[in-house]
Amino acid sequence: MTVIGVIGAGVMGVGVAQNLASTGHDVVLVDKDEQILADALGTIARNARMSRLMGGPALDPDEVLARITTSVGVGGAAKCDLIIENVTENWDVKREVYQALDAACGPDTVFVVNTSAIPITKVAAVTGRPDKVIGVHFMNPVPAKPAVELIPGFHTSPGTVQRTRDLLTAMGKKSVDVKDSCGFISNRVLMLTVNEAAYLVHEGVADAESVDEVFRSCFGHPMGPLETADLIGVDTILYSVEVLYEHYADSKYRPCPLLKQMTDAGLHGRKSGRGFYTYSTAN
């Protein structure tokens, strides 16, 4: 395994590509637009320069960038042995990407689904290689988080599990095994918390600062749920809650209208410069 394809150059894709390149892997970073890819490389270079100051290893930005090539369209990753997909949590978008990847890649290529909630077996079903599709739920920011959820689908082979586990180990990640259940461990709990926190603001019970202060000061959490929403992306939170609501048909996952309104208004959190809080620069 010499070259890893990374599909999607958003927040998660950039983090995955940086993590791979900084641990000695060659990467093909794929997106649909040259400007998005150029911006992604700029973000990776900046993150690499700041790595040590942020508590990570000392990195040479030039060495990290030298391991990353870019491509517009999934065809650029066609010869990769393993592909990590990081597109938005929208089923129609993911399905289209996997159908294109399945047509472009060789039969032995492993597809790793980086998803917050979408069942892995559902993704595998739109490909002709369900035994080579596996889920990995990376956390944000990817290079700084030591663990991931590892989720085999119904048909995922032991060989695919081992190949993926070996790669994660080489990336410095500990993998926690989880059965293929929508939302897995983390987001079955986290998305409910963030959604309910948004309801508190929506209903005027408290403002975002007060909600987060309770979690930081009373529970000792490093971040409150609405700060976490801004970090993950308010739009990503909404899409994940919608997937949970649709999958379980359970009203406890009903999406907060405020999340919908913020998503429609472009208030997506840190990456857009404004979410529950306002940021001086988008990151």
Automatic annotation (TrEMBL):
- What keywords are assigned to this protein? Oxidoreductase
Enumerate the spans annotated as 3-hydroxyacyl-CoA dehydrogenase NAD binding domain: 4-180
What pathway is this protein said to act in by its record?
Lipid metabolism; butanoate metabolism
Q: Which domain of life is it from?
A: Bacteria
Q: Specify the 3-hydroxyacyl-CoA dehydrogenase C-terminal domain's residue ranges.
A: 183-279
Coiled-coil region list: none
Is Oxidoreductase one of the keywords?
A: yes
Give the Pfam families listed for this entry.
Answer: 3HCDH (PF00725), 3HCDH_N (PF02737)
Q: Which family does it belong to?
A: Belongs to the 3-hydroxyacyl-CoA dehydrogenase family.
* Record's protein name: 3-hydroxyacyl-CoA dehydrogenase NAD-binding domain-containing protein
Per the UniProt entry, what species is this protein from, by scientific name? Actinomadura luzonensis
